Amino acid sequence: MINTFYKEMTGKESVIRQFFDYSRKRAAELGPDSVLNFSIGNPSVPAPDSATEAMQTLLREEDPVTLHGYSPTLGQPSTKAAIAESLNKRFGMNYKAEHIFPTSGAAGALSHALRAVTKAGDTVITFAPYFPEYIPYVTGTGAKLAVVPADTTSFQINFEKLEELFTENVAAVLINSPNNPSGIVYTTETITRLAELMQRKQEEYGHEIFLITDEPYREIVFEGTDSPFVSSFYDNSICCYSFSKSLSLPGERIGYLAVNPRAVDADKLVPMCGQISRFTGHNCPSSLMQRAIEPVLYETSDLSIYEVNAKLLYEALVKIGYSVVRPGGTFYMFPQSPIPDANEFCWTAAKELGLIIVPGDSFECPGHFRISYCVPTEQIQRAIPLFEELFNRYR
Amino acid sequence: MINTFYKEMTGKESVIRQFFDYSRKRAAELGPDSVLNFSIGNPSVPAPDSATEAMQTLLREEDPVTLHGYSPTLGQPSTKAAIAESLNKRFGMNYKAEHIFPTSGAAGALSHALRAVTKAGDTVITFAPYFPEYIPYVTGTGAKLAVVPADTTSFQINFEKLEELFTENVAAVLINSPNNPSGIVYTTETITRLAELMQRKQEEYGHEIFLITDEPYREIVFEGTDSPFVSSFYDNSICCYSFSKSLSLPGERIGYLAVNPRAVDADKLVPMCGQISRFTGHNCPSSLMQRAIEPVLYETSDLSIYEVNAKLLYEALVKIGYSVVRPGGTFYMFPQSPIPDANEFCWTAAKELGLIIVPGDSFECPGHFRISYCVPTEQIQRAIPLFEELFNRYR
């Protein structure tokens, strides 16, 4: 019999999707120049040539039966070892191959990590503003999501509110730094304080509380930004990574989770992920993609355009009069809406100026809007006068 | 807190895995020639050159931002349309692109299909012998698996037992034809009778009952075998397919599900799968792989070796005295063990002769053993005297 839970979801379009659809409709009606789309988080720079070459070399030189054969359930051993080594070299960790589980991007990593360290009825804490897909990732395990309200002055952690939300049902804390949608990177001070608080809560409640770190934007951090490797601050941690943004391969669904070697049951968590896959029908990411990322683990796409765009846009918005916390990384910025209703603000921007931005309500942070600036710099330049016109309407 | 359900599973190795591990240990100790491994279902023939060329052409000619960009949630439109067209041409169906959902192989297809048409507490019926991963696929949805015992004389359906197992809680029936492990293909007569019985049960219970067809071996059918396209016999059906065996791409995790256009809510089921993915963190298969299979939908690897091996092995086993139902396809055969305890029989084969075969107990069909003959023909020739020696021990 048709499952009514999923069936009822199909009618409901997300707000982000509504803006996206409007932008397509407008472009079709008024021409592509009538739209400046800042709603999408899709990398705008190509994968590095070295990544393409790695795929081509494998296709040319490797025996196809081996290359396209089943990956071992827990991932390609050589890929796992290479990822562990790269993390150890860069961040002074002690990962072994057995702590690495290749996944279908960060989505796969988060879903596995959450299932591994929660059970039905547990609570997972996250922080506004947050990626709305955290809701199905967390509720899909049977756990509940509790959200710490944003500190909108800095988008670092609101520790008083975090402390208030803690109960003994909390099995995990989920953070995303560098952050979508704020663009903010948690500082060493923030991470130290979070680790201390969680350590204290572990002792108070007498059970482990896992820190799950969602890090797809780890490689997109701007000059001068303090960007600590979170797992080195807290033992019971699982790092969830994706190559979607760093290598511009979002459609290839390749990422991993890395279990902190000092975590409780560190040797069990990856085999547990192998079991979890059996229940979700997920299995490993593409064998070709696992092998292809091995030689390019120390490389990225040319991410410099995101920093150029961030600087240009941030300075222009501040000059116009917008209140905006300077992003430390990603390709997102999260200014305050000049009127309390960011939804109304964004629809006005879309319908009157063709400026497609999305309201913060989708990220449980009303009164703000997200600009995705993974676009050609020329698009930023064209948009600045429109952001000014928009601001002046509400002056 | 660590999830104890998954943690407790990690210690337990499957029987198939134990045989696999033994074969590796034996090969390491006594040399590779000491082992003839018939335990693995991994294609032994390479992907067709046209598939490799399709990947290479895309990597060389397509804009990498587009090629590796996010796939739409419900799959690449051109891929979906091409799959629908190929099924319509070959099987006289009326699929549209919107009925096709690209998945991570048949595992992804089955997991989505099962979640779409069951809810917690429902029953899903399948038929022994069956692929043991059906247990996590079904229980992962919250449903229960009920198993119809095998008709070991033909490995077609035991309809009396099926009728006995039916209750109004049955939401779906899951079949696998051509079958792993028996190698048998359900005949037109079997499928017609199954469709009639399910239609009658739908009317009796007043709700739809879905037929989910697991078809990764669809293209491996031997000459003269009656091999009907199941979905054309029953409206409420979802066909789950994988390119793992037909194109020898198991590691690339590419397959699809096809919702029968005449099914209840046929237009809703693929959008529901898009919602289901959000909860399991699965998302789409690789963008490159979706695009790469488009031009090779009418092709396969050179599958002829499986038929050569089947004939050679079947005739030799029958001559020796084994009781075995002739396979109509796949690369499996499922003879009766000369002694009731197939487990003991298979361990004797492994330890005394280095012949690695797996007991039917794993497929809920004791007293039989599975031979995977996706191996070089020369390996079959070397194995025949060993199968004879083994048979004579128990004479």
Characterize this entry briefly:
Chain A is α/β, with parallel strands linked by helices and 395 residues long. In chain A, 42% of the residues lie in helices and 12% in strands.
Radius of gyration of chain A: 21 Å
Share of helix of chain A, binned? 40-55%
Oligomer: homodimer
Shape of chain A: globular
Strand order of the largest sheet of chain A: 2-8-7-6-5-3-4
Task: Please work out how many helical segments of chain A DSSP would assign.
Answer: 14
Q: For the terminal residues of chain A, how far apart are their CA atoms? A: 55 Å
Low-confidence stretches of chain A: none
Number of strands of chain A: 12
Topology:
Two copies of one chain form a homodimer.
Chain A (H helix, E strand, L loop, with lengths): L3 H7 L4 H16 L5 E2 L11 H13 L2 H4 L9 H15 L8 E4 L1 H13 L5 E5 L6 H6 L4 E5 L10 H7 L4 E7 L11 H18 L4 E5 L22 E6 L12 E5 L6 H15 L6 H7 L10 H17 L11 E2 L8 H12 L1 E2 L1 E2 L9 E4 L4 H17 L2
Parallel strand pairs in A: 1-10, 3-4, 3-5, 5-6, 6-7
Antiparallel strand pairs in A: 2-8, 7-8, 9-12, 11-12
Describe this structure in words.
Chain A is globular and about 60 Å long. Chain A has 14 helices and 12 strands. Chain A has helices at 4-10, 15-30, 49-61, 64-67, 77-91, 105-117, 134-139, 159-165, 188-205, 266-280, 287-293, 304-320, 342-353, 377-393; strands at residues 36-37, 100-103, 123-127, 144-148, 170-176, 210-214, 237-242, 255-259, 332-333, 355-356, 358-359, 369-372. The longest helix of chain A has 18 residues, at 188-205. Chain A starts with a helix and ends with a helix. The model of chain A has no long low-confidence stretch (mean pLDDT 96). The first copy, chain A, has a 7-stranded mixed β-sheet, sandwiched between helices. In chain A, strands 9-12-11 form a 3-stranded antiparallel β-sheet. Chain A is of the alpha/beta class and 395 residues long. In chain A, α3 (49-61) crosses α11, α6 packs across α10 (266-280) and α12 (304-320) runs parallel beside α14. In chain A, α7 (134-139) links the parallel β3 (123-127) and β4. At the A-B interface, α1, α3, α4, α6 and α7 of A face α1, α3, α4, α6 and α7 of B.
